[in-house]
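Project standup — Tuesday

K.O.: blocked on the structure for the chain from last sprint. Re-posting the sequence here as requested.
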Amino acid sequence: MGRLSGAVCIFDLDGTLVDSAPDLSAALNVMLERAGLKPISPDETRPYVGEGAKALLKLGYGRQGLEFPEGEEADALVNDYVEVYASRIADLSRPFPGLEGALEQLQSEGAALSVCTNKKEVLARPLLEQLNLLHWFEPVIGSDTLEERKPSPLPLQHILNVTQADRGIMIGDTHTDKRAADAANLPCVIATFGYGRGDEALADASWFERFEDLPDLILQQLG
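H.V.: unblocked you, prediction finished:
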């Protein structure tokens, strides 16, 4: 039995496993162009990636001094954005360097691997599949899988129950991940290369700079 037998490592997706900002930004710019607005750069969108499609659209409109619509019009724009994004979900997105080696090492130590993302599950699974990562993770919990999403502790608690783990850790990149872990009474480590760097809410977080360093850090926390 490995040192992490009975443990589950719960990964965020965007900004943690995968640099998806280029495709999310490109889809946003398609929507802005349709509305006769100017594009914005991926660097501007990165801090908002974990907040969902509506947050990205609000950002794009707000950068140009416009209020994003409410109600049915907003819902229609969000649905259109999701369609555009789904059509190019892995054109530019790539796993962060060193990921699969870290996953292999964690699995060899007996850990279960799961994903908890605020991306819809109907988008998360195709993204992971197209990048040949889906086979590592079960379950994959998205914002539409359960009745609550991060920062609620419910998705993390659900993963613990499904995997029958006696302990777990959240690996993420934003304050949403840390808040969910805190609420679920789980340790959390944050990727410095993700989308939450510079967020004051993460000032006291445990950080890792490379996936090569992650297994040893998790062993220190859970082993």
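K.O.: great, moving the ticket to review. The radius of gyration is 17 Å. The chain has nine helices and eight strands.
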